[in-house]
Design brief:
single chain; mainly alpha; 0% strand
């Protein structure tokens, strides 16, 4: 066998080994959380600790399920994360289209400031936002959480979709203009179907960010009827890691189900974004 073939096979083997190590490193904390959630309190506190539960039990799940008021928190999380991700994807898509195709004064500066706002910590805006929400009546409301998550997700949406729009040939714009399409028609009828994988990725990333968001949800909501899963998990677990493991699994399951359902679209979107294939 030629040396080039051997080198190619060795490179592929090393790549697969590296990917396997990365996969194990990513999945091990989730697996450990799942295994810990199936242990009893005595076994969880045992020294030295055990990896696999000797007598698996779901008692902790039942306790956490009631303590979290799970379905109310799940409903609030779906509303807040879903609507904010949808709004940020739609508005960010139109803004990214303007930055990609339009020409106006201060365009580069505006885009730079918008992207730089991703680095602003949430704690910087939390205090002023709390005072503003208290004055305008948005404190302890789901609509207030939707608005703040939409605002924080908008820069990321613009950043991702701007890259996808730039990968679309300008000839499509010219062809749409010759057919009489205006700005909105070109975007929604011609360009959007082409960059749909990028739109899906953007929406899912924003959905995951909204699903896991904690600081704003913890400070801007008070009553149990507006709490989301991340906050209810903290309240249910308290200082104990055992209820926290069960609550973490309950919080992860709906999102995991969604990602598994959309894994084909995700793979297609990353292939288009990273390799430029269509």
């Amino acid at each position: 066998m030629p040396a080039r073939v051997w080198r190619h096979a060795l490179a592929r083997l090393l790549l697969y080994a590296l990917l396997a190590l990365v996969l194990i490193a990513l999945l091990f904390p989730v697996l450990l959380m799942l295994l810990n959630s199936l242990k009893s309190g005595d076994e969880f506190a045992r020294v030295p600790p055990t990896l696999f539960p000797r007598e698996p039990t779901l008692n902790v799940y039942a306790w956490v399920f009631r303590r979290m008021d799970y379905f109310t928190a799940l409903r609030n999380t779906v509303i807040v994360a879903g609507l904010s991700a949808l709004g940020a994807t739609l508005l960010g898509g139109m803004a990214a289209w303007s930055f990609s195709r339009a020409t106006f004064a201060g365009k580069a500066l505006m885009y730079g400031l918008l992207v730089a706002s991703i680095a602003v910590p949430a704690m910087v805006t939390l205090g002023p936002l709390f005072l503003a929400y208290s004055e305008i009546g948005l404190l302890d409301t789901l609509s207030g959480l939707v608005l703040v998550n939409l605002a924080t997700g908008l820069p990321l949406s613009v950043l991702i979709l701007f890259t996808y729009y730039n990968s679309v040939p300008r000839e499509l714009d010219d062809a749409a203009a010759m057919d009489g399409c205006g700005w909105f028609s070109t975007l929604f009828r011609v360009i959007l179907p082409v960059v749909m994988p990028g739109v899906v990725v953007t929406y899912l990333l924003l959905l995951i960010a909204g699903w896991n968001e904690f600081p704003f949800a913890f400070v801007l909501t008070v009553g149990p009827q507006t709490r989301v899963l991340s906050v209810r998990l903290l309240e249910a677990a308290g200082r104990s890691a055992l209820p926290g493991s069960a609550g973490g699994v309950l919080m992860l399951l709906p999102l995991l189900w969604l990602l598994l359902r959309l894994q084909r679209r995700l793979a297609e979107a990353f292939r288009v974004g990273l390799l430029g294939e269509r």
